[in-house]
Amino acid sequence: MATPLSADALVSALHKEGVTVVEHAGWRTNNRNHKGSWGPVNGVVIHHTVTSGTAATVSLCFNGRSDLPGPLCHGVIAKDGTVHLVGNGRANHAGSGDGDVLNAVVAERTTLPSPNENDTDGNVHFYGFECVNLGDGKDPWPEAQLDAMARASAALCRAHGWSANSVIGHKEWTSAKIDPRGFTMADFRARVATLLGKQPTSATKPAYQPFPGTAWFKKNPKSPVVTAMGRRLVAVGCSAYSDGPGPQWTEADRRSYAKWQRRRGYTGSAADGWPGATSWAALKVPYSS
Predict the structure, then answer these.
(1) In the predicted model, is pLDDT for residue 289 greater than 60?
(2) Which segment of 63-77, 213-227, 263-277 scores lowest on mean pLDDT?
(3) pLDDT tens for residues 172-200?
(4) Domain made up of 7-203: CATH architecture
(5) pTM (2 decimals)?
(6) In the predicted model, is pLDDT for residue 204 greater than 50?
(7) Which pLDDT belongs to residue 210?
(8) What is the structure's pLDDT at 203?
(9) Domain ranges across the chain
(10) Any idea what the Cα angle at residue 214 is, between residues 47 and 230, rounded to 5°?
(11) Residue 44 and residue 159: Cα distance in Å, rounded?
């Protein structure tokens, strides 16, 4: 059993494992804690979404549906391997499952019992990642996505001192579900185990700065990341600076980034100067520790 990670600790754990993270506005307070307890946590549940498209899936998982309020997970893992954080706390993802399975996860047994009873609230005990896939057994799982799924799972296992046996599929929690389809959980746990046998990827300096999230910029950060971004904007001819870029985010940074967005073909509100994941990746901001 373990106390759930704080929002900052979760982001740090994911970054240390080499995961590209997008923090969506409001995710840190988006939870269902008023409906029941969150923790102690015992493991990670992997889901498929039965959706396509990152933006629509993230919106759905953040807000939920009329019959199932959000958040529907803690993170959405896109086809490109980006982990979009949408919830922090109790989330509507695991639902009711078999208490014997929970006991096996707690004991980190290599073999799980077949789920028969739906007698235990999994939303208390599990982190959940929704992974973008139609779930028809035909929609492919790109290597970048599978790698990110394994790294995100390993990040939580490493932070809590768990083994890969603490990672299960939704279908292993309850007989009412079939997800995830398209790979076996035994193979997936082997991926996680391999990662846990190595030092975190962050020991190797990445070439480019991971996208810190639009919300991060709207908090007027002071960071070497802002300087590195500004220097790249100057280099590509999108400067609106009078004195040159510095670590404090300013209106000049926003105007410069808006020039970059227009250069990339964005218009209207999509070229408002607030960085987005796609335009950030194209800018190739050098990594700044």
Answers:
(1) no
(2) 213-227
(3) 999 999 999 999 999 999 999 999 997 66
(4) 3-Layer(aba) Sandwich (3.40)
(5) 0.72
(6) no
(7) 79
(8) 39
(9) 7-203, 214-283
(10) 135
(11) 12
The interaxial angle of helices 143-160 and 7-16, nearest 10 deg, is: 120
CA–CA dist 149, 152 (Å, integer): 5
pLDDT at residue 89 is higher than 70: yes
In this predicted model, what pLDDT tens digit does every residue of 135-165 receive, in sequence order? 999 999 999 999 999 999 999 999 999 999 9
Residues 191 and 150 sit within 8 Å (Cβ to Cβ): yes
Question: What is the number of residues in the chain?
Answer: 289
Contact partners, residue 125, CB within 8 Å, separation at least 6: 39, 40, 41, 42, 43, 94, 102
E strands of the chain, at which residues? 21-23, 43-48, 64-65, 68-69, 75-77, 83-85, 96-97, 120-121, 126-131, 167-169
CA distance 78 to 264: 22
Residue 198: phi, psi to the nearest 5?
-120, 165
CA separation for the pair 126, 91 (Å, rounded)? 9
Give the residue among 71, 36, 42, 37 at the shortest CA–CA distance from 57.
Answer: 71
Q: Are 78 and 84 in contact (CB under 8 A)?
A: yes
Q: How many angstroms separate the CA atoms of 75 and 151, rounded? A: 13
CB contact set of 118 (below 8 Å; sequence gap of 6+): 95, 96, 97, 98, 174, 176
* Angle, CA 35 vertex, CA 31 and CA 37 arms, to 5°: 80
Reading the block at residue 201, the tokens are 């990827």
Q: Which of 262, 288, 263 is nearest to 210 (CA)?
A: 288
CA distance 156 to 277: 24
Inform me whether the pLDDT recorded for 38 exceeds 90.
Answer: yes
